[in-house]
């Protein structure tokens, strides 16, 4: 067997060449130290932050978010915007309409001018910009409040049905089926005479506008909660079999604690999605009711009522129908696209290109 030659050091001691194993070990240790120092600098992100990051990557959702914020700010600052224009929502400018041709606006495009930015209403002389801004307030208020109420009721019912099961689940599920199958618009229209009589506040037939809005919100919420309840129920049926729920029962936690402290925090994503999609649906429903004469009481501004009135003047003044119609389309489309973007951002398993 051939032996490796040894090298003699200047001191007279024999030794070997530099050990490659020791060098590799030292390199690995330094690399591990660098990785450890790098990992310590990484900060964990919450699910909400990760969802916001996904949402920011979606250009359509961000454009929809910007449009939604603009509409909300316009509704909040409606008095400021109308003060800049110089006209209130029910302040008539009789000089802007021509009584010789059926009280249609002077000029082209429905009377659009520096005095009236979006023109005036035929017949009344109301400033269309002020009517649209205050009508946006009504539509957003009804849509948001009714969506909030329906979401709260739907979450409570869905939690109870999914967690308790048995006859409670059967009863609540049958109620959901009836509500989902009920013709909402026909039911409200059929009750219009009864509601109108209940609204009478004096002998002259006056109507309390706040009471009318409250009834609209309650009517819409009474039919919208079932969608959220069915969604939450399906999620709870899966979550109630998880280990953390069993651990809570073993530790003696009551059903209130399990429902609202254990299950509810794990349902915020589908609940937020349901709320985001309910708002545009409720706004559309409110506009349809006002269009059919069951919504906001004239002359109070509302987009559905504007579209209903504008249909009578469309052939001569199409601008009166075109402007509120396009704005309603943009608002509902932006809210729907934003709701879809929120759903995709909250679902990490969604297929994104």
Describe the fold and architecture:
This protein has one domain: MetI-like (MetI-like fold), CATH 1.10.3720. Strands 1-2 form a two-stranded antiparallel sheet. Strands 3-4 form a two-stranded antiparallel sheet. The protein is built from 14 helices and four strands. It is mainly α. A hairpin with a 5-residue loop joins strand 3 and strand 4. Helix 3 packs across helix 5, helix 5 runs antiparallel to helix 6 and helix 5 packs across helix 12. It is found in: Cell membrane. It is a multi-pass membrane protein. Keywords: Cell membrane, Membrane, Transmembrane, Transmembrane helix, Transport. Pfam families: BPD_transp_1 (PF00528), OppC_N (PF12911).
Defining traits:
two-stranded antiparallel ribbon, BP-dependent_transpt_permease, elongated, mainly alpha, OppC_N, MetI-like fold, 353 residues
Helix and strand run: EEHHHHEEHHHHHHHHHH
> Domains counted in the coordinates: how many?
1
Report the average pLDDT across residues.
79
- Give me the secondary-structure category: mainly alpha
Distance between the termini: 65 Å
CATH class: Mainly Alpha
CATH architecture: Orthogonal Bundle
Strand content: under 5%
Order of the strands making up the biggest sheet:
1-2
Unreliable parts: 4-18, 20-28, 31-42
SS summary, helix count? 14
> What overall form do the CA principal axes indicate?
elongated
Write the CATH fold name: MetI-like fold
Q: What is the β-strand count?
A: 4
Radius of gyration: 32 Å
The fourth-level CATH homologous superfamily is: MetI-like
Helical content (DSSP H or I, runs of 4+): 55-70%
- Let me know the largest β-sheet: 2 strands, antiparallel
């Amino acid at each position: 067997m051939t032996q490796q030659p040894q090298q003699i050091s200047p001191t007279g001691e024999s030794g070997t060449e530099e050990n490659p194993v020791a060098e590799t070990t030292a390199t690995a240790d330094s690399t591990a130290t660098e990785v450890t120092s790098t990992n310590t600098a990484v900060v964990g992100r919450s699910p909400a932050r990760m969802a916001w990051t996904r949402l920011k990557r979606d250009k359509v959702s961000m454009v929809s978010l910007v449009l939604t914020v603009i509409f909300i700010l316009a509704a909040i600052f409606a008095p400021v915007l109308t003060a800049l224009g110089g006209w209130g929502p029910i302040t008539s400018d009789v000089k802007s309409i021509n009584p010789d041709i059926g009280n249609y606006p002077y000029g082209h495009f429905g009377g659009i001018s520096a005095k009236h930015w979006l023109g005036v209403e035929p017949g009344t002389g109301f400033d269309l910009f002020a009517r649209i801004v205050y009508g946006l307030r009504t539509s957003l208020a009804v849509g948001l409040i009714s969506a909030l109420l329906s979401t709260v009721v739907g979450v409570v019912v869905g939690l109870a049905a999914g967690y308790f099961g048995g006859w409670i689940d059967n009863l609540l599920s049958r109620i959901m089926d009836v509500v989902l199958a009920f013709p909402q618009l026909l039911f409200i229209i059929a009750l219009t005479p009864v509601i109108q009589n209940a609204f009478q506040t004096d002998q002259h037939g006056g109507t309390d506008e706040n009471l009318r809005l409250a009834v609209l919100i309650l009517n819409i919420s009474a039919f919208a909660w079932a969608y959220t309840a069915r969604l939450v129920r399906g999620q709870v049926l899966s979550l109630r079999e998880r280990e953390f729920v069993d651990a809570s029962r073993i530790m003696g936690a009551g059903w209130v604690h399990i429902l609202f402290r254990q299950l509810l925090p794990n349902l915020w994503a589908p609940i937020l999605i349901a709320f985001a999609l309910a708002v545009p649906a409720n706004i559309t429903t409110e506009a349809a009711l006002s269009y059919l004469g069951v919504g906001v009481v004239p002359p109070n501004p509302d987009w559905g009522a504007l579209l209903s009135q504008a249909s009578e003047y469309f052939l001569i003044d199409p601008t009166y129908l075109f402007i509120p119609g396009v704005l309603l389309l943009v608002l509902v489309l932006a809210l729907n696209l934003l709701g879809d973007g929120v759903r995709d951002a909250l679902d990490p398993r969604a297929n994104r290109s």
